[in-house]
Amino acid sequence: MLTNLSIQNYALINQLSIDFTNGLSIITGETGAGKSILLGALGLVMGNRADLSSLKDAASKCIVEAQFAIESYKLEDFFKEQDLDYEATTIIRREILPSGKSRAFINDTPVTLSALNALKDKLLNIHSQHQTMQLSDVGFQFSVIDALAKNSAKIASYKRGLKKYNSLQKELKILLDNQEQATQQYEYNLHLFNELEEAKLKEGEQEELEETLEKLNNVEDIKLNLSEALQATISEEVGIQTLLNGVVNNLHKISSFSKEYEELYTRLQSVKIEVDDVVNELEDANESVDFDPIALESANDRLQLIYNLQKKHQVDSVSALLAVYEDLSTKVGAVENASEIITNKQKEIDDVASKLDEVAQMISKARKKVIPSLKKELEFLLAELGMPNARFSIELESSKTYASNGKDELLFLFSANKGGNFGELKKVASGGELSRIMLSIKKVLSEHTQLPTIIFDEIDTGVSGEVSNKIAHIMEQMSNYMQVITITHLPQIASKGKSHFKVFKEEVKGVTTSNLKQLTTEERIVEIAEMLSGKNVSESALIHAKELLN
């Protein structure tokens, strides 16, 4: 509930801080005294658009701060989702700077206006006559029925299922679109895939073929140079191997004479081993080199195939061709396996839909169960409020469409006059009638769900006499379940309040200022007497005021 409202430099208010209690609080005051300013300040702190014209002193900033006791509202998850510190006593602050910039804070954490508006719906409901048009909104009508049917948990479960259902439907659509596109390209992709599969490409194959081709095309030069190199190595007279053998023998004979000779011998021995290995490899290479026209043709053909495939697919390596092959394999496989994949996806959708239908049926059943009692209670309350012939026709029909709150269609019709035709609320009910219908609905809701603080802004306009007593009684009953604040001009309603505040204007140093104060018992008697008889309070008005308060 709202426990404190502090206003600084807003409209006609210099500085104001007022504490509110639970139950029914009354705000009265003369027309133009500033009751609408209070509502404007509350709207501002809860996220309404800021305006520089709101500043009383254009050189100073405007600050509006509201304090709420929220322990019973179960908002821990909301604060966690918004990344805010949860406090049982939550303070919301809004500042408008002279520059026109606006800042908002929840428990001293800066927040966006969207976060503020989201929290507003959970803490405060400012209700005026023009807001009664909400009655014609089907979503609101469903929310009333669902509150009585205690459908919140079932609807939350339904929404989770609906989110999954919609997600699966999107996945199915993508599969079907992909299948359609893939089918159109299937024959061509299959041809390309088969062509690459027949090629049986291997990583590094191109480099090996190019090297082999280079050897085969230069076989004569290779043979000549290998032969000459081999001859220079193994010639019996001047060959490197022959000469090296002689040097090794010479050093071997003197190696035992000193460490120096032994070391030289050891090093030359290593060189000899390496040269012997080279000679063996030269001999092998020389013997293996031979002109092979068949191998040449085969290498040429294979390499040309690779070049042709690279040109066709606009790539420059076998690795890239293998990547193309994998991609084509996926595309071809997607078409060939699409039917099975789509069938499985459809089965998954059907399973979710079946569970959704079960929950929707439970929601619908609970709605149908409470509609007769809702209809009866609303008609009873409206009869109490001076509308004895008011009748409702509330019909629930099953739908094949998955809506956000179930699979029902709702027809919420009203007739104000005996024998009159039923019609949509906005078409057949007057403004005063809509106000009384909304009050009745709020009364019913207050007994079945945890409602936020509700502020009635002169919802009693246009009524008097016994009806005003009934409105006062209903508000008093509502205040047993929630905090109710009402701005009123009727003494019958003002007398029912647990606490009573008066908005008034005063002139300070030639400047008009609005203020608010909580009235004592004696001040309440005078205020209600003035509401009964005007500024010139009569003795009978004072007596009547005391009777109303008692």
TrEMBL record:
It comes from Tenacibaculum geojense. Belongs to the RecN family. Residues 2-507 form the RecF/RecN/SMC N-terminal domain. The keyword Coiled coil applies. May be involved in recombinational repair of damaged DNA. This is DNA repair protein RecN. Keywords: ATP-binding, Coiled coil, DNA damage, DNA repair, Nucleotide-binding. SUPFAM superfamilies: P-loop containing nucleoside triphosphate hydrolases. Residues 162-229, 261-288 form a coiled coil.
